[in-house]
Write a structure and sequence with these properties.
alpha/beta; single chain; binds 2-acetamido-2-deoxy-beta-D-glucopyranose; sialyltransferase cstii, chain A; membrane; 41% helix
Length: 257
């Protein structure tokens, strides 16, 4: 094959580019083009699955919910609250090696008394922002849920609402997006406040105590929304919860939990 005679160029590529090159080569090696199924095969595969559509299994749901509660107690620990994070408590960041902080007066005052959701949440939609929903027409179905969670401040403008819906109760925000899109809220903060208006009365869920670099931007989001009298409020992710839930999913992947 001509591809195998290809020589490494003498000029050094940046590490990222050569890694990408190797990845693409491996990918082509493992999945050569002739093994990709054609359209007919795909349609046939789908037709074969007819009648075996996914069905809700209440026994499995109850069992899984119990496992989750035992491992991570989301009802209590999902967010930082005055109840689960009293003043003076020492907490370890879940995304840093050996870095802890002590909850002081100023931080404590930012926490709600308890997790502010009416539990159980009943029917939930969890909506990612990878773009797969484009042209899906799923908006109505998503909005039918009692509680809609979205990931990382996705666009919700009217051109997308047919595909992704309008409703939001909780939206996650990575501190890095605050840095990249909103100059870390160190300059004008109005663009940020305007951009989150689409989330109506939502909570913005931020991992303020996962990485050292995330604390500042997360607190600034909190104060910005408060200063502007915005409808949205920040909920800080609890690092203990994030650590436990991370372990839980890893163990599930290995079939242990
Ligand atoms: C439902 O889930 C339970 C627990 O995982 C399992 O034992 C059972 O076989 C499932 N039932 C159906 C119909 O799939
Ligand atoms: C913490 O705040 C409360 C009320 O705002 C105040 O009474 C108390 O003295 C403060 N404690 C410390 C250690 O600053
Ligand atoms: C926004 O909130 C208002 C008042 O709670 C509600 O009437 C409206 O339907 C909400 N809009 C969306 C898109 O969720």
């Amino acid at each position: 094959m001509a591809g195998l005679a290809w020589k490494w160029p003498r000029t050094r590529l940046p590490v990222g580019a050569s890694a990408l090159g190797v990845f693409v080569l491996c990918w082509l090696y493992i999945f050569p083009v002739y093994r990709l199924p054609d359209e007919k095969e795909i349609v046939q595969g789908v037709l074969l699955q007819q009648g075996k559509a996914w069905r809700r299994n209440q026994t499995a749901v109850t069992l899984f919910r119990k496992l989750l509660e035992e491992c991570c107690d989301p009802g209590q620990l999902f967010a930082m609250t005055k109840l689960n994070s009293p003043m003076g408590k020492n907490l370890w960041f879940d995304g840093e090696f050996l870095y802890s902080f002590t909850i002081d007066n100023a931080t404590y005052s930012l926490f709600p008394q308890a997790t502010p959701f009416q539990l159980p949440l009943k029917k939930c939609s969890v909506v990612g922002n990878g773009g797969i929903l484009k042209k899906s027409g799923c908006g109505k179905q998503i909005d039918q849920a009692d509680f809609v969670m979205r990931c990382n401040l996705p666009p919700l403008s009217s051109e997308y609402s047919k595909d992704v819906g309008l409703k939001t109760q909780l939206v996650t925000a990575n501190p890095s997006i605050i840095q990249k899109r909103f100059q870390n809220l160190l300059w004008s903060r109005k663009a940020f406040v305007d951009s989150v208006k689409v989330y109506n009365h939502s909570y913005i869920y931020m991992p303020a105590f996962s990485m050292k670099t995330g604390t500042g931007p997360s607190l600034r989001v909190y104060y910005t929304l408060e200063d502007f009298g915005a409808k949205q409020a920040v909920l800080f992710a609890n690092p203990n919860f994030l650590r436990d839930i991370g372990k839980f999913w890893k163990n599930k992947g290995k079939g242990k939990a």
